[in-house]
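A quick aside before the break. I want you to see a complete sequence-to-structure record at least once, exactly as it would be stored in a machine-readable document. Don't worry about memorizing anything.
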Amino acid sequence: MKKIRDEVRGLNRYGKMILVVVLVICAMVSRMIVRYDIVTGPLNMGVSILRSGIYIGLIIAWGVSIRKRVLHSSVRHYLLAIDGLLLFWMFLRTCKYLFLEGLDPARAFCWYAFYIPMLCIPLMAIFVAQCLGEVEYYTVPKIFRLLYLPNIFLILMVMTNHYHFFVFDFIGGIAGANMPYRYGTEYFLVVAWMAVEIIAFILLLLKKSHVPGKHKGIIAPVIPIFAGVFYAIGYILRVPVLYELAGDMTSVYSLLMMSVCELCIQSGLIPAKEFYEELFRASVIGAQIVDEQDSICYISDSAKRFDKKIMKMAKEQPVDLGKERLLAAKVHGGYVLWLDDISKIKELLQNLEDVGKELSRKNEILKAEISLEEKKVQAKEQARLYDKIAMEVKPQLDVLTIHKGYILVSDSGILN
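That is the input. The structure line, written in tokens, reads:
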């Protein structure tokens, strides 16, 4: 049964991974179909919408799984913020390329708004790393909130680029949808700040992780981070091959960011419910979790199985099983039952009972000795009193004896 359960769980996990890979491949194929005009007209639009729908669906599904799996409230909060920012980014991209054709100001606004999630997602990642290893209701120190200020400044600078062109300098002097442009000095300031946030995230991840062998555990999440760095360099340099194969920055960075967070969870850097069933099964505590109908849902390898009648009795009060005691506690959706080893307690109680009997026996002997001693003292006291009385009345007895002799002599003379 255990082997079958492990195989099913493994199949479910690998099945999800395969499904994600298939969906990403479908999205990439859809991009190629649209890019090279393999289909035209409404079908072309339908393929584009399908592609966006795949990515949006993946982001939403990942956010739902984060809400269910991640235990730490603050970590869950910031991961959901990352998910929301990714969804916002994908929404802006979809609007820009699919629904705002010919509306250059609106498309430019969506393009500038891309930098809201691009700047805020690394910041949320820093907050996630800061919360690792802390208590469940830990909140990020207020000093970390100062990191919002550079983000706000840089976002405002990008969003107002139409007025100064410090971030993107359009060669024609007009910010059109398809106008050629070059990067301004402030653009590299934005990129530099994002790099600082990413480096801070990696360093905090190393510092705050409490997983044994954490330097090995950090390798997996760092791989997509460096992949994103190399992608950004290639994107800025406008490498033709990169533009052909992965020119959609929004999709690429959404997948990379979800990969980073997911690898942090899978490697144990972010505590989650992912492996709690295995941990429960491997526990040395003989425990099991049952539903309201007393059917076993989870059971540890060291647990004993009990009849449902005994389980119901344990729900009312602890059941004595000799050297062990079966206890139960209410949990959401059922009960947890576990065995409490009371052999040592019973042995101690037996020892105490034996000691009590011994003390009682010695107490009886002591009482007898005390009673005997009291009788001896009483007898001695009576003898002393008798001796004292005898000594005190002896002179009177002597006088009486003498007078009795005189009387006897006198009586003898009279009679003669």
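Two observations worth writing down. The radius of gyration is 45 Å. The longest strand covers residues 324-331. We'll return to this after the break.
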